[in-house]
Give the backbone structure.
Amino acid sequence: MAYEPIWMNSGEKLNKFEFVKMQKDGLDVIRDIIETYSKTGYDSIPEDDKTLFKWAGVYEQKPKDGYFMMRIRINSGILNVAQARALGEIAKLYGRDLMDVTTRQAIQYHWLRVEDFPDIFKRLEEVGLYSYEACGDCPRTIVGNPLAGIDPDELMDTTSLVDEVNDFFLMNRDFSNLPRKYKMSISSNKFNNANAEINDLALTPAVKVIDGQEVIGFHAHIGGGLSAKPFLARKLDVFVRPDEVLKLAVGVTTLFRDHGYREKRHHARLKFLINDWGVEKFLEKLEELLGPLERSGEDRTEGWQAAYFDGVHPQAQEGLNYIGLNVPVGRLNADEWLQLADIAEIYGDGRIRTTMSQNILLSGIPNEKVDEVLEQPVLERLTPFPKHFMSRSVSCTGNEFCNLAIVETKERARRVAQYLDEHVQLDEKIRIHFIGCPNACGQKHIADIGLQGALVKTPNGMIDAFDIAVGGILGPNARFNKTLKGRVKGDDVPLVLEQLILFYKDNRIEDESFHD
Ligand code: SF4
């Protein structure tokens, strides 16, 4: 039975987009794309429907002349070889060979046309992958521990839990009209591999003694998110057993759906409801919905490794290794990707894993095969032993393709990292993130050095510039970085960062790291 959309009669003023969503469920646009727009072409798509294309996982690409970008959701970032090959083939056939790894472990294509979508959807579905609801006001890609199942630092393998929650919410019309986007993470890794604090709902490793037995489960954190008003997720006083994860996720999402704000788009994320209600009231409402919940146990998050894994590392399974590759600013071509799929099949466990730092892991490599894998030509550029600054550079899409961007980011981030690697010697890896507008897809707030695109006026007109913020970190001491005074012209960024890092190098006290 369909649920009652209680906000429609709540008396709350609704923003314009809510009326578009009331006229048509975002999921209906997928059928219209397949049956109609793919045949009638770009010019035939009504504007309202174009805004609903997000539910199909696609956005219009800049400059809105008929091309689209598409995100593919990947549970925990873990793909099998058949899935990886299908993704590479789609990039070759339709996406001009370009593949971006996003900060939510998705693969993003560019240059797609609406005529291509039915075949892309079909190719994805054949291998159990979807772009549906990778964007839009709905539960999006569920991020997780890319090392799930092979991780010496996880309390339990969370692969099937992420799949279970994903399968419940994907294309579920009871949850396809939320007030705004909704992001979940589920990980049992002790070093916060899924960046818990910046999700609407995050499950992190915990244990609790219940009836004399130590039970492995999760703690829940709610209301995290970035953009112009960033919030760190706050801990709910609950302990969640693995078999209750889905129930909790349904409860939290239901409260957001029914009580989240729908008046202003920029004030609609769950974080604003949590900020007003507080976690205690939220928990009361959750227990009214779900019945009594177990109180917290003992946290098992020990630190934060920012989802970086470069190098060769032993797995939980004796004699096997995973290899963390650097994908400079998350961009690779389809041939490189397909070569990685071949390596995964020939030498590894047949898995390719994407990380929230926009990188890729190969896994299941036996000790005796490691050297052979390291000699593969594709690992020359996608190296497991990257230079320091290139290894820690993250960038959003920027104005090359994104309609919301104020400045170019991706190529600039790559050039800045290259410059710093050539000019600065440092025994520490500093994380540098670029974003092209306040929406923060490149997660600027959690970087050691975060750069946000802006414009400055000069005698020759407006030019690209950046606000610079320092000191972001997640994990037990989580905090967002703080913006420094002044705005730096785009061309001056390499020199300014060089000076900033050298000042730190010359003045740091013993054992101090950049985020201290
Ligand atoms: Fe586009 Fe802004 Fe997101 Fe960058 S941060 S991809 S510019 S919306």
